[in-house]
Amino acid sequence: MAGPIADLQRVREVQSVVVAAGHQLTPDWTRDTALVDYGKYPVGAGAIAAQDLEAVLSADAVLVVASEHEGRGVFAELGAALARACRGDLAHLVVVGEMRHESVFHFHPAVVRVDSVHDWLAGLQSEDEPHGPG
Length: 134
Prior knowledge:
The protein has 134 residues and is mostly helical. Helices cover 43% and strands 10% of the residues. The chain has helices at 8-20, 42-58, 72-86, 117-128, and strands spanning 61-65, 92-96, 112-114. A 3-stranded parallel beta sheet has the order 1-2-3, sandwiched between helices. The radius of gyration is 15 Å and the shape is globular.
């Protein structure tokens, strides 16, 4: 789950819906957001960056929560997820919500854009439903 720290509550809301639907989160970065002055604490910031990147690299799906707030780290996570998706290593790369700070990469064919996390989850359910004989 990627999203700007400035929109922490919305990210947590999306996470809650995903967890309630039976999915697990890779490390939940929203639990510890105390370190925001990265340049002042480069070792701690480096550890956070490594953990967040590992979460993107190990996830079965990456959801990017679009926001009115800018989130520079979100673009790095989107890029890492997109690289995995292009290699066929990530089946679900989803941007949730209205994009206000979009990049050309939000429109890559591997990216699915949905209005809400409920829309994505409904799409997953329809993929899992049997489609008759054949």
